[in-house]
Amino acid sequence: MLLNPEAGIAHLFEAARRRDKAEKRQLLVAALRQLLDDGHASARAILAGPRGGLACAHRLSAVMDAVVIGLHKAATAHFYPADNPSQSERIAVVAVGGYGRGTLAPGSDVDLLFLFPHKQTAWGESVVESLLYPLWDLKLKTGHSVRSIDDCVREARADMTIRTALLEARFLAGDRSLFEEMTRRFDAEVVEGTAAAFTEAKLAERETRVQRAGASRYLVEPNVKDGKGGLRDLNTLFWIAKYAYRVQDVRELVAAGLFDKDELQMFQRSEEFLWRVRCWLHFITGRAEERLSFDLQRQVAAAIGYAGRSGQAPVERFMKAYFLIAKDVGDLTAIVCAALEARQQKPRATLSRLLGSFTKRTRERSLGHRDFKLTSQRLDVVDDSAFERDPVNLLRLYEIASREDLAIHPDASRLVTQSLRLVTPGLRNDPEANRIFLEILTARRSPEIVLRRMNESGLLGRFIPDFGRVVAMMQFNMYHHYTVDEHLIRAIGVLAEIDAGALEAEHPLANEIMPSIANRRALYVALFLHDIAKGRPEDHSLAGARIARKLGPRFGLTTAQTETVAWLVEHHLDMSTVAQSRDLGDPKTIESFAATVQTLERLKLLLVLTVADIKAVGPGVWNGWKGQLLRTLYYETELVLTGGHSAVERKVRVQAKQEALRERLADWSSADREAYIARHYPAYWIKVDPEQQEKHARFLREAEQAGRTTATIVETDQFRGVTELTVLAPDHPRLLAIVTGACAAAGGNIVDAQIFTTSDGLVLDTISVSRAFDRDDDELRRAERIAAAIERALKGEIKIADLVAQRRAPPPRGQTFQVQPEVIIDNVLSARHTVLEVSGLDRPGLLYDLTTAIGKLNLNIASAHIATFGEKAVDVFYVTDLTHAKIVSTGRQLNIRKALLEVFSIEGEKAATAKSKLPARA
Fold this sequence. Notes:
EC number: 2.7.7.59, 3.1.4.-
Largest sheet: 8 strands, antiparallel
CATH class of the domain at 709-909: Alpha Beta
Distance between the termini: 26 Å
Cofactor: Mg(2+)
GO biological process, one term: regulation of nitrogen utilization
Shape: globular
CATH topology of the domain at 709-909: Alpha-Beta Plaits
Family: Belongs to the GlnD family.
Oligomer: single chain
Radius of gyration: 34 Å
Number of helices: 42
Protein name: Bifunctional uridylyltransferase/uridylyl-removing enzyme
């Protein structure tokens, strides 16, 4: 039936001529169901072969053609034959939209136009219904419209979506002359003379779409269909080219002068790759899934046949290929836009309408080099041999664009890509070329934009081969939102933002100290290089430091500047790690970090670099809580580096805090104030700020006056992005486990815990939970529910284990990510406590399970520090035994490590068991 659907239908109806109409319909649907199943099976087999992406999409479209043509034959020859049809009893069945292009993915919609010469007749209505009902019975997602030729012309004029659908109309069955009349009038009455308007509308529509799907083409979970650099971008390019150049096939664009042969191959290669990925997504999931999520990336990579190589996993190699294709699609977009602008079918930038010829001549003179000119107010080369004459011009193009704040003409960018062979070792070591690069990198005006242009043209990776190794490199984890090269470029953008004094409210300390940094160039270079060694088998910080020592002299840095850059790259994670996973109130923490940093200048550099690094990871990763931790670490370390923080200094600070609290509690009697102050140990006075100390004092007093030993209060902190729950309860080893369990059961995500024990046997815990709502009143209601659950659990009214079990769900990424659990036991990091650092795959209830295990080991938790990096949890506990001593026994340490590792292994067994019980997916 696939090769000759009309003959197949005739044979089916001949065999069923004695059956009634209902039975014939059932036989028809069954036959078509078999046709679809066989067609999908053959398409999947084609997809598994070489260059099978487009071939699969074409096969699926051909199968659907056979179904529609067969249904039309059944309707017009068997169910509703018109023996003597009138002029109005004519119909053309037309494929439109993606189906009109002759390509379908396994889960794609089927868009049909039922075309009539005039308004629909009763016969026509019956025919349309007899086509649609079987399609619905086959569970196909069918979009349809019923229009006359006049309707098509009128609606296409008014609606760009309808116009685009008709642009790709393809005749399937019925009256071909009707279809040809429609296409003739569409070209003459809709398309003619409207290319500029269509182009502008399609590009605006594309901008809206990619913003909705994710503005960067380097998002690590891209949308294959609608994301930037995806299939829809290729479709848009061809729609515009087809509309403007009046071609029917992409190959005709070479003769039209839009693409050269290499660019045509780039288009075809991109289309083939993206169709292959999209078809596998649909087949693997059994639905129209367009988002290449972490869960699916491994499966698609395996289906296509990627293998590991050079320290990269198969999935990372696959995703690098994906992002390089997305980059190619971006290059093609720029080429089409430039060509259309040259034909004046795409409106020029608004600036060009405002600037007069005098301004243009002035700017041309100010470019400062004879090999460059302005074309349509964009920076361009004077001729195609500009880079051949002087390869340094490759860098100079971007320097002038940065200095003069000019857009680069797409023709010039295209020529850069075609001239990359000129980037030789001689150019890489040319002092002038490296001076220019450093000027671009450290420019005060938009270095991020210019660096991204250099990267997209391919120049950045060619000029700095170590950077070229991380271009389009994905890190297969949930923490990083962008590819490595995109992260590095975005980090430079954040640094420039700080350098300009922007967004001070988000990172006040970084903005405050940036003007006082003496080594600004070293900071920019270090930030640009901090992740440049990602993807190598060794520690990327150490390998990156070696690369920095090699590149520093090449860039023209002094020996001292190069060593500063290398140190920053080697230690770029230290400040974030210490701030988020160490007890900042422990003197040993600060002393150890100060010993690493050594100078105040390095401390300043490392703070600003850390802020920029975290902010560039992705939306929502930076928050006020992390900022507060970094500021605390900075100020505490600054004291040590400037000669303070001795035992005497610490005692003075405690006394100053106590005196400040006395002033705040002026309404208390002197005896009450002194009695309260005596209840707290020195660590409390160092860690807690005076405002919070006053709140604690009044909270404890109110609880005592009410006769309560168990109480809670909640408070929101919008700046830090957390909600604080303060818990008062009698001390016992499992207290933190109960609190964390209640938070987990109520959906609270704990980011930090401060634990203080009073001299009279009470515990004052402050639990910081990530905000879930923007509005304070909504957040407070949620926090109060968590606090109520904590109080009930502490009183024994509810069983925390049961609540956590109800809340616990199979980890959504558990089958996708593997994180080797690790337990580190350290007695050096703190003078008074043993430090347990536990890392592994994050999941709901993990912190509760860990604190429960620690409680069962009869350990006191003095403080807990919780950090999550995507799918990886890193939880650090400062503990002692029940006599408040460190854990020094080797046997005891082995038991602790075993018990904490079992928390992960038991959950892994549960996940494996649950997975084995799931029905096999077709």
